[in-house]
Amino acid sequence: MQKLNQPRKDFLKRLFDRKSTPEAEMLKKTMAIFETVKRNGDEAVKSYTRTFDGVDISHLSIPILMEDFESRVDGSLKEAITWAAENIRTFHEKQVPGKNENYTVEVRPGISCGLRYQPIESAGIYIPGGTAPLFSSVLMLVIPAQLAGCKKIVCCTPPDKNGSVNPVIGYTLAYLGIDSVFLVGGAQAVAAMTYGTESIPRVDKIAGPGNAWVTLAKQVAFLNGTGIDLPAGPSEVAILADDSADLSFIAADCLSQAEHGYDSQVLVATTSERIFNDLIPEITLQLNKLPRRDMAQHSLEKSYLIYVPNLEDAVNITNLYAPEHLIIQTRSAGLVSEQVTNAGSVFVGSWTPESAGDYASGTNHTLPTSGNAANTGGVTAKTFMKTMTTQTITQDGLRELGPRVVTMAEAEELKAHGEAVRIRLKKLKGNIYE
Amino acid sequence: MQKLNQPRKDFLKRLFDRKSTPEAEMLKKTMAIFETVKRNGDEAVKSYTRTFDGVDISHLSIPILMEDFESRVDGSLKEAITWAAENIRTFHEKQVPGKNENYTVEVRPGISCGLRYQPIESAGIYIPGGTAPLFSSVLMLVIPAQLAGCKKIVCCTPPDKNGSVNPVIGYTLAYLGIDSVFLVGGAQAVAAMTYGTESIPRVDKIAGPGNAWVTLAKQVAFLNGTGIDLPAGPSEVAILADDSADLSFIAADCLSQAEHGYDSQVLVATTSERIFNDLIPEITLQLNKLPRRDMAQHSLEKSYLIYVPNLEDAVNITNLYAPEHLIIQTRSAGLVSEQVTNAGSVFVGSWTPESAGDYASGTNHTLPTSGNAANTGGVTAKTFMKTMTTQTITQDGLRELGPRVVTMAEAEELKAHGEAVRIRLKKLKGNIYE
Predict the structure, then answer these.
(1) Which of A249, A404, B79, B344 counts the most CB atoms within 10 A of its CB?
(2) DSSP state, residue A21
(3) What are the angstrom distances between the C-alpha of A145 and each of A206, B65, B338?
(4) B145 in reach of chain A (CB within 8 A)
C-alpha cells in the first residue's frame, strides 16, 4: 500500500486517472469473435466453448428445474438467498417509474408533451463463472429486469467442467422463475446475444459483470448498437475514516475488496494519524488468515493510503477518485455522505461493510468502476427500461407553433421541415375561409 | 421508395436490421486521432482543424458575448428561439428527480437503503457545423444540462471559414448564458473533451449529434470510460397512416425527413390502399419544389412503403422497426400511441408534424436511431445526472444481515467478504458480554 501524506490535488488527478483505451490486439480478437459468431451462429459458439472453456457441449441451453437444484443447496444458503432477494426487490421496486415520472404537460395551449417509461423487451444477463460461482449477480440483474417488466430474460453463463451449471446459480435462477440458461460464456456469449444465433436469441440490452474479455465484448456490442448496462472494470473501494474509526474494520474492508482479483484497488483517505500509521500492520496481520492471500497482497500493492488533516479534503479526495464503493467510518457519517458527489454506492457508518451491499442490503452491486461513477450510477430497474416522448398538437396549437417552426427550420436551411408545417397551416386556413 | 404489400415478419426483421459494426479502417483512424490528441493536446487539435476544416485558428476558444450576436439575428428568429426554449424548459424540468425518485426505504429493521440523483459535474456538448447551423441542438442539449445542475458545460463546434462561430449558434449560446465556445469539431473535439488538453477541459460525459465521424468518436470516448448520451446514427421517421390520413401531409413528412442527409430513412406503414397507391406520385410532386431535392431523392430510394390491412399489424411493424420518430396519422391517434413500444418520440395526430419536435414543441430532438429505440430513449435532464445508492445499517440490522452475508460470501468462495462482517459481529458480541 502506497502511503501519501497530504498529496497535491494535481498529483492525485493524474494518479486517479483509470481511463484506458482497450488494447488494440484484444479489441481485434474480440471483434473477430463477433464476426465469426455473426456468420456461423451456434457452431461458432460451440467451437469457442471447446477452445476457451475446454468443454464440448451438444445443447447450448439446459432447462432450469427447481427439483434439479433444490437438494444440492444448503438450507441456510437458500434462506439467505430468499432474504436477500426480498431486500433487493423492496429496494428496486421503488425505481419502477410511477405517475410523477410518466407525465404529460401542456406546455402551451394546444401543445401537450409527454414522457413515459417502458420496459426493454428482451434483456440479456451475463453471469460470470470462473473462480467463484456468482449467484449474487443473478439476484442483482434478474430482479431489476423482472421488476422493469422485460418480456424475455435471456441468461448466459459459462459451463462448468461437466458441461452443466453451478448448482447455486441453477437454484437462484429457478427461485426467480427463470426456466432455462445458455451454457455460454466470454465474448462468444455477448456476441451471440448481440446478433442472435439459431439457439440464442438476440436481445435489446446486455447486462452483467465479467472479466476483461466480457467487458470489452460488451463495449463491442455497444459499438454494434446493442444496449449495455455499464462497462464494469476491476472492482474498487474507497474508505473515508476519521479517528473514531475502528482500525480492524478498515483493514477487513480493505481485504474484502482486495480479494476480488489481482487488479482490484483500495483507497483509504483518513484524517487520523493513528490510522495512517497503524493500518498497514493491521492489514498484514489479517491477511495471513486468508486463503486468497496472494491475490489480496497483489492488489494491495497498487492501493493508496492517504492522510489529510481535514475531513472536507478527505471527501474531496474520494469525490475525485469516484469509487465504485465508498465506506464512511466517521462521526456523523450520514451527514458526511451528503457531501459525496461521485460514488457508485455508499456504505454509511461503522456497521455497514461493503459486503452488505454486495449481497443482501438491497442495493445493487453492479456499479460503475474506473472513475465512471462521475458519469453514471449502477444498475437499477430503469436500466431495463427506456423512455419515449410524445407530443400532441391541436389545430390551435399548430397555429401558434407553426410559424415559429418555419422560421427556425429555414434558418437551419431545412426547407422541407418548414414545408411539413406550411402544408398543414394552409389546410387550416382552407378550413376557415372555404 | 420500395413498396411492400403485406410482407412477412421474418423478412421485415432482416430488412429492418440497422445494426452495423464500425468500419475497421474508420475505427483505426479515429483511435489514432484520439492517441494524437491525448499526446499533443492543443497542437494536435489545431493541426486537425487545419486539415479537416481548412481553418487556421490561433485561439481554440472564443468568448460568447450577447452584443456580438444580438444584431446579427432576425427578430422573428430570436422570438422563436425564446418561445421554443421556454417549451423545452417546461417539458424537461419535470425530469429533474423529485422526492419520489430520491428515496430511502427501510428494507428491514435497521437496514435503510437509499437512492439519489446528482448532476454530472461537467458536460461536453457537441454542436455540429456542416451544411446547416444546428442552433436547435444548442437548445436541446444545454437546457437539460442546466436543469440537471451541471457545474461546467463545455461547448464545441467546428469553426466557420472565418475561424468564428455561426451567429445564430452564438446568439443561442449567449441567450442560454454560455460564456465561451471552443471552435473545434469532428473526432478531435470529442477526443479533446475525453482527455482534456491545455485549453479544452476534460468532461465527464459528452452529448450531441454529429456525422458518422463524430458518432464513432463518441463511441471511442465511451471505450475510454467517458459517458456519452447515445450513438446517434442517420435520422429516420416512421409514419403510421390509416385511410383518414391526409396524403399531402404524409408526403411532406417523408420529405422533411429525407432532406436530412443522404442516409436518412423513411418508413410508411399504412392500412390504406389509397395511400399505398398514391403516396409516391404525391411525394414526386412535392419533391420538385425543394432545394435539397437530390439528397431527399437519394434517401427515399432506400425507404419503404408498406401496406397491411390491419392497424394492429401496422403498429407491430413500426415497433419492430423501432424508429427515431414516429408520426401517427390515424383515427384515435392517442389510443394508437399507447400501443407503441419502440420509438424515440411520437407525433400524435395529423396536426403534429415531426418538425414540431425537432424545434419547438418541448420534447428533445436528440433521439435513438438505427433501432436503438428498442433499448434507450432520447436525451432528458437525467442524461446529465447519475444515481448513487446508500445503505445505513444499525447494530441490530447487522445482527440480522451479518450471518446471511457470511453464508453467501463463503458460498461464493469470498472469505474476506465474510470476514468484514465477522469482525464486526465479534465486536458486537464483545459489547454485549464484556
Answers:
(1) B344
(2) P
(3) 11, 48, 22
(4) no
| Partner-chain contact A377 B389, CB within 8 Å | yes
Residue A131 confidence (pLDDT)? 62
Put simply, the answer to whether B290 touches A418 (Cβ < 8 Å) is no
Assign 3-class secondary structure to chain B: CEEEECCCHHHHHHHCCCCCCCCHHHHHHHHHHHHHHHHHCHHHHHHHHHHHHCCCCCCCEEECCHHHHHHHCCHHHHHHHHHHHHHHHHHHHHHCCCCCCCEEEEEECCEEEEEEEEECCEEEEECCCCCCCCHHHHHHHHHHHHHHCCCEEEEECCCCCCCCCCHHHHHHHHHCCCCEEECCCHHHHHHHHHHCCCCCCCCCEEECCCCHHHHHHHHHHHHCCCEECCCCCCCEEEEEECCCCCHHHHHHHHHHHHCCCCCCEEEEEECCHHHHHHHHHHHHHHHCCCCCHHHHHHHHHCCEEEECCCHHHHHHHHHHHCCCEEEEECCCHHHHHCCCCCCCEEEECCCCCHHHHHHCCCCCCCCCCCCHHHCCCCCCHHHHEEEEEEEEECHHHHHHHHHHHHHHHHHCCCHHHHHHHHHHHHHHHHHHHC
| pLDDT, tens only, B217-232 | 999 999 888 999 998 7
Shared-domain flag, residues A147 and A61: yes
pLDDT mean across residues, chain B: 94
Find the angle CA(A106)-CA(A111)-CA(A112) to the nearest 5 degrees.
Answer: 45
Choose among A98, A225, A340: nearest Cβ to B371. Answer: A225
- 3-class DSSP assignment, residue A230: coil
Nearest to residue B263, comparing CAs of B227, B229, B220, B215?
A: B215
Cβ atoms of B204 and B227 within 8 Å: the answer is: yes
Q: What ipTM was reported for this prediction?
A: 0.95
CA distance B275 to B244: 10
CB distance from B210 to chain A under 8 Å?
Answer: no
* Range(s) of the domain holding residue A30: 24-229
Residue A325 vs residues A138, A239, A254, A342, B4: alpha-carbon distances, Å: 20, 8, 11, 10, 54
Contact A366, A229 (CB under 8 A): yes
CA distances to A1, A8, A263, A325 from A300, in Å: 5, 22, 9, 16
Same-domain check for residues B124 and B61: yes
pLDDT at A433: 45
* DSSP symbol at A360: T
Q: Is A385 helix (H, G, I), strand (E, B) or coil?
A: strand
Residue range A300-330, pLDDT digits in tens: 888 999 999 999 999 999 999 999 999 999 9
**Number of other CB atoms surrounding residue A94 within 10 Å:** 18
Strands of the sheet containing A236-241, edge to edge, are A2-5, A304-307, A265-270, A236-241, A325-329, A345-348, B385-393, B111-119, B103-108
Co-location of A335 and A272 in the same domain: yes
Answer yes or no: do B204 and B252 share one domain: no
Residue B106 CB neighbours (<10 A)? 14
Q: Is the pLDDT of residue B36 over 90?
A: yes
The verdict on residue B30 lying in a domain is no
The answer to which of A30-39, A273-282, B14-23 has the lowest mean pLDDT is B14-23
- Cα–Cα distance measured from residue A41 to residue A198, given in angstroms and rounded to the nearest whole number: 6
Please report how many Cα atoms fall inside a 13 Å half-sphere around the Cα of residue B33, on the Cβ side.
29
**Best mutation site among B87, B113, B152, B400 for testing chain A: the one with the most A CBs within 10 Å?**
B113
Give the residue from chain A lying closest to B250, CA to CA. Answer: A420
Is residue B387 a part of any domain in this protein? no
Tell me whether B225 touches chain A (CB under 8 Å).
yes
Whether residue B34 lies inside any domain: the answer is no
Number of domains chain B contains: 3
- The whole-angstrom distance between A357's CA and the closest CA on chain B is 8
